[in-house]
Design goal:
By secondary structure, the chain is an all-alpha fold. The protein is built from ten helices and no strands.
Length: about 200
């Protein structure tokens, strides 16, 4: 009596995962406005009515993806600790962000496309959670500077620069590979370069 509902639940969970993975591919490539339910259904190898059975709209799928991956996006900064050695903490944050670009390029482009559209679905998070988290970590960096433990830099712009110099490798991957060629490993090279850059920037 209970076998059929459990099987149905597994099928539903599988279909939801397939739809979300297909939508991630579409949104990260085409952006929100360029993606349609028809495209998501085609990529997922499901019918449009089947997709709409699980999600009422394109907006619902997009919001689900953003909410699902939000912690993944913010966790590297959350891990920066006031109790650690300052340069190790900042360099570790940079490396975690670069690893995210390497391992989660579609997720990175999903958020990049959202921000380029004015972040309509992330407005609350941008104004609240992200702002507060950056302010908290910037205050830690400012304390390290005041204690003479690292060179004087603007803490907010230091964090923003890490975003720019790591996320670029995912968000503009086609451009990076066009410049470097297909035989070079952009992430290994980037890590060596950024280690050198930030080591010198933060040295007293």
């Amino acid at each position: 009596m209970t076998a059929a509902p459990r099987q149905g639940s597994r099928i539903q969970q599988k279909n939801r995962r397939v739809i979300l993975q297909a939508a991630l591919s579409e949104f990260s490539t085409r952006g929100f406005n360029g993606t349609t339910i028809d495209r998501i259904a085609e990529t997922a190898s499901l019918s449009k009515p089947n997709v709409l059975y699980y999600f009422p709209s394109k907006e619902a799928i997009h919001l689900q993806l953003l909410e699902t991956h939000l912690d993944l996006w913010l966790d590297p900064l959350r891990a920066l600790s006031a109790t650690g050695e300052p340069r190790e903490q900042i360099m570790g944050y940079m490396r975690r962000k670069l690893d995210m670009s390497r391992n989660y390029p579609q997720e990175s482009r999903l958020f990049a496309n959202e921000v380029l559209q004015g972040a309509p679905h992330l407005e609350r998070i941008m104004a609240g959670g992200l702002h507060d988290l950056v302010a908290e970590k910037a205050a830690i960096i400012a304390d390290w500077i005041a204690q003479g433990r690292i060179a004087a830099v603007d803490p907010h712009h230091l964090i923003i620069s890490i975003w720019a110099l790591t996320q670029h490798y995912a968000d503009f991957e086609v451009q990076v590979r066009a410049v470097l060629g297909q035989t070079r490993d952009p992430f290994a090279e980037a890590e060596r370069f950024l280690d050198h850059l930030y080591s010198r920037m933060l040295a007293l």
